[in-house]
Amino acid sequence: MTLSIPDASMPEVTLAILVAPGYMPVDIIGMHTMFGMLPKVNLHLVWRNTDELTGTPAFPTRPTTSFADCPRDVDILFAGAVPPAVFQDEETLEFLADRGGRARWVAASCTGALLLGAAGLIKGYRATTNFQATHLLEHYGATHQAGNVVEDRNRITAGPATGGFEIAFRLIQDIYGDDLAREAILQAEYAPEPLFDVGSVALAGPELTARARAHIRPLTEELERVVLG
After folding, report:
1. Rounded to an integer, what distance in angstroms lies between the CA atom of residue 131 and that of residue 205?
2. SS3 for the chain, per residue?
3. For position 4, what pLDDT does the model report?
4. So which residues are the catalytic ones?
5. What pLDDT was estimated at residue 229?
6. pLDDT by residue (tens digit) across 165-205?
7. Which of 5, 160, 171, 216 has the most CB atoms lying inside 10 A of its own CB?
8. 108 CB burial (10 A radius; 0-12, 13-18, 19+)
9. Mean of the per-residue pLDDT values of the chain
10. pLDDT attached to residue 9
11. Which residue segments constitute the domains of the chain, with CATH numbers given?
């Protein structure tokens, strides 16, 4: 399925989305889907090689493009959450720093924003990430700003799981214009109506927030050990 726009009127766009063993598909699926529906988009799921890997939870994935074969110049570089070990992978960080240094947009959802930080791509920028990890942004020289999506020059980051969709809509607006962004939102029927209105720390309140933090604390502590050393 593609959006009903004549190919001749569309610019070519190159999108590189990082995948890795243990990555979170929920963070990238919005970007992958919305841009994948558009004609003349060269979409790359990038990892060090094209061997099958498994996302979390139990999501078999085959990268389409290796770091070496990824185009040197990409319009959009995008990352979602990955395991803390990837933050210490020099090949990954070098790839992100190289492509991100020339990309039209550098984007991330959830703790993908921190991975961009590890690659030196958010220093001096306003950014956000998952609420469990916003305190780590300053370690990479970024300033945390509240909001589902935070845009600062050509850096755009999101905290919630819906952030991949919301970033995609914003970048479609930038590249293709308001009309196509509206159509993309409609095609996705993007009108969230959560069962309970507790989808942020402010809405959830202290008791539910504390419980949520406690449940994920082992992963947060592992991330802190890697980021803070």
Report:
1. 13
2. CCCCCCHHHCCCEEEEEECCCCCCHHHHHHHHHHHHCCCCEEEEEEECCCCCEEECCCEEECCCEECCCCCCCCCEEEECCCCHHHHHCHHHHHHHHHHHCCCCEEEEECCHHHHHHHCCCCCCCEECCCCCCHHHHHHHCCEECCCCEEEECCEEEECCCCHHHHHHHHHHHHHHCHHHHHHHHHHCCCCCCCCCCCCCHHHHHHHHHHHHHHHHHHHHHHHHHHHHC
3. 55
4. 110
5. 86
6. 999 999 999 999 999 999 999 999 999 999 999 999 999 99
7. 171
8. buried
9. 95
10. 77
11. 7-193 (3.40.50.880)
Beta bridge pairs of residue 78: 17, 107
* Cα-Cα-Cα-Cα dihedral sign, residues 19, 55, 60, 21: positive
Q: Under a CB-based contact definition with an 8 Å cutoff, are residues 116 and 100 in contact?
A: yes
pLDDT at 31: 98
**pLDDT, tens only, 116-132:** 999 999 999 999 999 99
d(CA 81, CA 197): 24
> Quick one: pLDDT at residue 6?
58
Helix 163-176 vs helix 25-36: crossing angle, to nearest 10: 30
Angle at 115 between CA 111 and CA 119, to 5 degrees: 160
Residues composing the chain: 229
Q: On the CB side of 184, how many CA atoms lie within 13 Å of its CA?
A: 27
Show the tokens assigned to 78. 């995008």
